[in-house]
Amino acid sequence: MLGNDTSTELKYPMTLSKDSATADALTKIHARVKARWKSGFSESSFRKILYFAGICVLVLLVAIFLSLVIASFPAIRRFGVGFLFGTTWDPVKGEFGALPFVVGTLIVSFLALIFSVFLSLPTSIFLGEYFTEGGTPTFIKSMIELLAGVPSVIYGFCGLFLLTPLVRSLEVKLGVAPYGVGILTAALVLSIMVIPYSASIGREVINLVPTDLKEAAFSLGATRFEVIRKVILPYARSGIFAGILLSLGRALGETMAVTMVIGNSNFLPTSIFSPSNSLASVIANEFTEATGRLYLSSLIELGLVLFMVTTVINVLGKVIVRRMGVEG
Amino acid sequence: MKEFPVRKRIVADKIFKAVIILLSFACILPMFFIIFFITSKGISVINWEFLTQLPKPVGEAGGGIFNALIGTFMLIAISTLLSVPIGVLTGIFLSEYRKGRLVYLVRLSIETLQGIPSIVFGIIAYVWIVVLVGSFSALSGGVALAMMMLPVIITATEETLKLIPDSLREASLALGVSYPRTILKVVLLSGLSGILTGILLSVGRVAGETAPLLFTAFGSPFMDFNILKPVNSLPLMIFNYAKSPYPEWHRLAWGASFVLIVFVLGMNLFTKLVTRRWKVQF
Amino acid sequence: MIHLGASSSGVGVKKVLSLVTILLVSTIFAGIGHAKDVELIGAGATFPYPLYSKMFDVYNKEYGVKVNYQSIGSGGGIRQLINKTVDFGGSDAIMSDRDLSEAKAPILHIPSCAGAVVITYNLPGTPQLRFTPDIIADIFLGKITKWNDRRISEINPGVKLPDMNIMVVHRSDGSGTTFTFSDYLSKVSPEWKEKVGRGTSLNWPTGLGGKGNEGVAGLVQQTPGSIGYVELIYAVHNKMPYDTVKNKKGNFVTPNITSTSKAADTNLPDDMKVMLPNTDAPEGYPISGFTWILVYKEQNYAGRSEEKAREVVKLIWWMTHEGQKITEPLDYAPLSKKAVEKAEKLIKSVTYNGKPIMK
Q1: In this complex, how many residue pairs, one in chain A and one in chain C, have their CB atoms less than 8 Å apart?
Q2: B134: nearest CA partner in chain C
Q3: What residues of chain A lie within 8 A of the CB of C99, using their CB?
């Protein structure tokens, strides 16, 4: 099986090609390619190829960053750091400021995080402490993983047609402008989307809490509730935090679902019922039509900001996860 | 030290447990809602015409998603062909050279790449390919998707290969097999299931992506096999039709969503089964 | 004991892998082989999209040429034409001097039809409302906020207006419809002209954004109390109510094909770059506009073939002649004879390497 294959040459069977002449010809070609393969590849050239592949990935990342910076240059040169704090996004006058989108992104993401923690933390405790084995927990785990697999556009579609009317009737009851779409709707949709990220990491860190710690507490007469509150959660605190960070990273960059339900307004939002725009959604909306060099490079600078923010948060989360010894 | 009466603490404990169970089940409710709604609204739309016809112009009833299906397939083909070779080779690189400056930097790059929002990849593919080629194209969409597939494939390859004991490598080398062939024909092949899982997972992920295709693949009402031309895809079509005011288009979007979710979730479940059956046992 | 789960089907796995790879690669190469088929790509205005999608479907059936038009907004059409990623652009907005200088080569504006921008709204009972120019401007400026405002009820006697907030819906993307509408508003309201101005993407004082005419229509349809502006066909097709507006000469005009054509029946410059809103025509609908096909005058750029240039010219000629039959059934106004004459002159001036393509 290993190393001697002159007798186990891959012969093209009759089923693959209908006549023996073709099968023989194919076998001969295959043999010739194999011979070349055998003699042509030396260890050092193979190792060089491996190195090359690794460097390619590195170069790719650097190239992405540099491309973003270079393409943002006109905007950077024109607006400088003030870009991040400008509140006007006016393509007619050529004035571009990112603050409405930064604020929109932050509010939607943090709101989504708060909503999702309400569901993901109990689930982590459920799966990590109460029911760690068995059919039902496995089912719940699979369901949550499936949540992560649903495409973003489908979340947006369902959000637009199922959630928006509900939010609209809520707004009517509250006497607020019944847009239906807006920050609240986007945060609700987003919160469902990010549950899997914090739930799975939370579950693993809670599971990893050393048994003797828990047993010591139990033997002192603590109830399950108290053990969770005073032993498990404090111990797993940084891991849970890392899971939340990773959810945040995902929420910040989420595009399609947010674009479809956030209302697309380029103004600083005034309440959670306001329509707004996130960094990602304004790029999605306006990229293909940015007329003018400055407009386009301002949008790309928004992409650069998004890139940097999500990178920092994601790397931070991953570092903490690794420190806790959990395979993220 | 304050002492709480035991009864109170036990009651609190039971309430807590009940709340936890409730919230955990509430957590998976959205999944049921989504599957229920998409199935109920989408399944009635599926018929032979829906799957094999091109979309009709605005205002005309009927039409189908054929070009979107083909387009999705084409995009997956392009992105897989672009990302698998480099991805697998890099995964081998990381598992063979466990330590070192370059390895550390490459690992960092992969983690960074994984967290980049998909729309940024769309921007990059636009700047690199669309402007160069001079038109929107399936190729540029495939490139954007390939960049998204890379981290998953690399990580899956590396993790799988790490599981294979060194003794296998050493046995092969001891028998005189050259290093490249050891890696490619022995180590790689035995880790094939794990690598395939990684590839299938990333395919499932990019099949549902829309944002990077908005200004690369662009969309098209026609059927086109040319990779240098724009192409439609299922998620793009759902996006365009969902935000339109035409009820016929909404209907098509539900049907397309049903097809898409069956494919993506099916892919996820399939990889879970495959992992369980083909696990490398030592 | 080492047991490699996959190796028992080692040869089978290799076969499957090679088959899959061959399948994937051949898909790609089959595609490249078709590179010679002529397909024209256009992008831009959503205003004429229902018309264009029908036109290109008919053209495809008659001539076999595929025309792929994506409605991403006039701003998008202009941008993509400047980037040379499309063969032609669609726009209801005239290109600004800044855009033209960025294009570095002359771009022709060839009209394809005229349409009406209507004010559509969502009110219980769907009453038929009348508006005057200043009311429209003040609603969109955010100064009139309630439907039962005195000014609206004054010119709509007999209509019971509810005590609801007016929710403005506008375009979130770069739009020629916005350009036409804001051109009108700038002409009738000095405050609008100063505060907001005319353009494809505006800094709207208030309101929600929808993507494309479709997005605005969709939002107005779903949001009670909302008001928005869309091309006529979008309101008709979705059975949404629309306005009757007082024009420059003091007549209340309902938007339809006749009133749009009348609005377009004015002096037309040779380059056809004229904005129709607030027309002098006594029976013309005041918020009408042309929509143009934008092409480079000199078609030999970025390695384009002469054949492709010829196909583009043929397409535009067809659109302005036989294609005009499709306009009226879809509630667009066909080009007047004068307009077609001017269009013909423009089409004949399209060159390849300096030589006119169409004689």
Answers
A1: 102
A2: C85
A3: 291-292
The answer as to whether B100 is a domain residue is: yes
Does residue A4 form part of some domain? no
How many structural domains comprise chain A?
Answer: 1
Q: Please tell me which residue of chain C has the smallest CA distance to A167.
A: C223
Are B16 and B132 found together in one domain?
no
Q: What is the pTM of this model?
A: 0.81
Residues across chain B: 282
Nearest to B222 among C3, C68, C212 (CB): C68
Give domain status of residue A174, yes or no: yes
| C27 contacts B59? CB cut-off 8 A | no
The total of structural domains in chain B comes to: 2
Contact C134/A at CB under 8 A: no
Instruction: Answer yes or no: is B200 within a domain.
Output: yes
A291 → closest Cβ in C14, C78, C225: C78
Q: How many CB pairs under 8 A join A and B?
A: 254
Within-domain flag for A51:
no
Residues of chain B contacting residue C303, judged by C-beta atoms under 8 Å apart: 134
Same domain (yes/no): B103, B71: yes
Interface test with B, best of C1, C2, C58 (most B CBs within 10 A): C2
In terms of residue numbers, what domain contains A273? 79-323
Instruction: Answer yes or no: is A269 within a domain.
Output: yes
Do B210 and B122 have their domain in common? yes
Domain assignment of residue B207, yes or no:
yes
Give the nearest partner residue to C99 out of A90, A168, A292, using CB atoms. Answer: A292
- Please tell me whether residues B107 and B200 are part of one structural domain: yes
CATH of the domain at B236: 1.10.3720.10
- Report the gap between the CA of A288 and the closest CA in chain C (Å): 5
The pLDDT-based confidence of B100 (bands split at 50, 70, 90) is confident
Q: Which domain holds residue B150?
A: 50-278
Q: How confident is the model at residue C8 (pLDDT cuts 50, 70, 90)?
A: very low
Which residues of chain C have a CB within 8 Å of the CB of A265?
172, 204, 207-209
What average pLDDT does range B48-67 have in this prediction?
A: 74
Instruction: Tell me if chain C has a CB within 8 Å of the CB of A271.
Output: no
Is B151 found in the same domain as B99? Answer: yes
Q: Residues B112, B173: one domain?
A: yes
Which CATH number belongs to the domain containing residue A114 in this structure? 1.10.3720.10
Whether residue B40 is found in the same domain as residue B54: no
Say whether A260 and B239 touch across the interface (CB within 8 A): yes
B138 lies in the same domain as B115: yes
Give the 3-state secondary structure of chain C.
CCECCCHHHHHHHHHHHHHHHHHHHHHHHHHHHHHHCCEEEEEECCCCHHHHHHHHHHHHHHHCCEEEEEECCHHHHHHHHHCCCCCEEEECCCCCHHHHHHHCCCEEEEEEEEEEEEEEECCCCCCCCEECHHHHHHHHHCCCCECCCHHHHHHCCCCCCCCCECEEEEECCCCHHHHHHHHHHHHHCHHHHHHCCCCCCCCCCCCEEECHHHHHHHHHHHCCCEEEEEEHHHHHHCCCCECEEECCCCCEECCCHHHHHHHHCCCCCCCCCCCCCCCCCCCCCCCEEEEEEEEECECCCCCCCHHHHHHHHHHHHHHHCHHHHHCHHHCCECCCHHHHHHHHHHHHCCEECCEECCC
User: Is 60 exceeded by the pLDDT of residue B178?
Assistant: yes
ipTM of predicted complex: 0.86
On whether residue B1 sits in a domain, the answer given is no
B142 → chain C, closest CA residue: C28
Q: Does B221 score more than 80 pLDDT? A: no
Q: Measure in Å the smallest separation between the Cα of A146 and chain B Cα atoms.
A: 7
Span C9-58, pLDDT tens digits: 445 556 666 777 776 776 666 555 444 457 888 988 888 888 898 899 88
Task: Print pLDDT tens along chain A (328 aa).
Answer: 344 444 444 444 544 445 666 667 777 777 766 665 555 567 788 888 888 888 999 999 999 999 999 999 988 888 888 888 888 887 767 788 889 999 999 999 999 999 999 888 998 888 888 888 888 888 888 888 888 889 999 999 999 888 988 898 888 788 777 778 889 999 999 999 999 988 888 888 888 888 888 889 889 888 888 888 888 888 888 888 888 888 898 899 889 999 888 888 888 888 888 888 999 999 988 887 777 778 888 999 999 999 999 999 888 888 887 776 654 3
